[in-house]
Amino acid sequence: MTNLLSSWVLFFSVLGLTAVEKKYSKNLFTPFMVTAWPYAIISVLVNLFAVQLDFLPVTARVNFFVLLNLSLIWLIGMMMYQSYGIPREKTDFAAIFSRYREFRYFLLSLSWIVILAVTYKVFSILRKEGLLYVSTGEFEDKMVSGLTAHLGQVGAIVLVLYVLSLWNFRKTYFDYLTMLSLGITITAMMVKYPIVWTVLTIFFIKNLNSSVKLQVRKLFYIAGFIILIFVVNFLILYTAWSDFGLTSAAMWKRIWGWFINYLCSGPIMLDKWIDYAHSKPWWSLFVVPINFTNVIIGDPERLNAVKFVSPGFLSVAPGFKSNVGTSFGVYYMIGGFWFTILTTVIIGLLSYYFYLKSFRSSNPIVAYLAAVFLIMGILSFFVQYFTLLTPYYLLVLFSLFVGMFEIILAFKRS
Hints:
Largest sheet: 2 strands, antiparallel
Order of helices and strands: HHHHHHHHHHHHHEEHHH
C-alpha cells in the first residue's frame, strides 16, 4: 500500500510541476516533462497492475528518490526560463532542413546502398545458419560488427536527413518506399536502439514547437509506433522459433510479459541498484572516450560498457530478469547519492540549454542536440546512453553530413 501511495505522490507531483512549466513553455516536450512522465506512469502501472502478475513493485524509496531528481531538473528549467528567456518563436524545425532538399537524390541513392548491403548480409547469414539463428545473440553480434554495422548507422542518419529535408515538400511514392525500406532495414538488424533513436530524433525535431494539442495527438502516435517495433521484434523471434500463431494464448502471454519487463524493469530494479552504491569505478561513464583513446594510441584493450554500468541480470518476476535500472541507478552505482544529484544537475543544464537554444538557432546540429537530450530524457527510465558508442557515432555522422552539405551550398552561392 505504501508503494502505491508513493506512486500517486510521484504522479500528482509531476502533474503539478508540469502545469507550472506549461504556463512558461507552452510546450509538452521540455526536458523535464519528457523525463518525468515515463517514470510517473510506469510507477503507477507497476504498483497497480504489474504486481498482480508477480512483478516486483516500484518501491517508495525509488519513487521519492526519482521525484527528488525530477524536481531538480524542473527547478533548473524554471531558472533557465528566467535567465535565458522563454521561447516564443514558432520555429518550423523541419524547415531548417529544407535547404538540403537538393541533396534528395544523393540521400536516396545512399539509402538504397544501405538497404541492399544490409539485406544481402541478413540473407547471407540466414541462408547459412537458418531462420532460427535470428533469435540468437550471435546474429546480433554479426550485425553490429563490420561494414554492415557502419552502414546501418549511416542509414539511420540518412533517414533522419531524408525525411526532414522533404517533410514540407511533395514526396513521390518512391520516396515513401525508400523511407519505409530503410526503416525496415535498420529494424532488421535486430538491434532496437538505432531504429527507436532514429524515429524519436525525427519526431522531436519535427514536433518540438507544435501546438500542445497536436503534441498530445502525435505522442499517442509515436508511443504506438514504438510499441509496434517491439511487438514486431518479438513476433520475428517467435517466427524463427516456429512457435508463431496469431491465436496462441501462450505466445501473446509471453510477449506481454516481455513487454512489461522491457517497459517497467528499470524503475523496479532501481531499488536493488541503490544498494550497489560506489560499486563501479568513477570513470565508468567515460568508457567510450577511453576506448577511443585506446584505438588512437594502439592499446588493444576494449572496455565492455555493460560491466561498468550494471550489476548483471536480476530477477524482476518469475521467469523474467533484467540488467537495467534507469539512468539514476547507473549514476548511483558509480558515485552514490551526491554523484547522482550532480550528474542530474549537469544533464539538466545541458538539456535545457540546447532545448532553449534550438528555438533561436537555424543550425541543424543545435536542433539535433536538443533532440538527443530529449531522447536521453524520455528513455532514462530504461538506461543511460553515455557509455554507448551509438549516440556519439550518430552525432559525428550527422555533423559530417550537415558540414558537407553546408560547404557545397556555400560553394554554390559564391
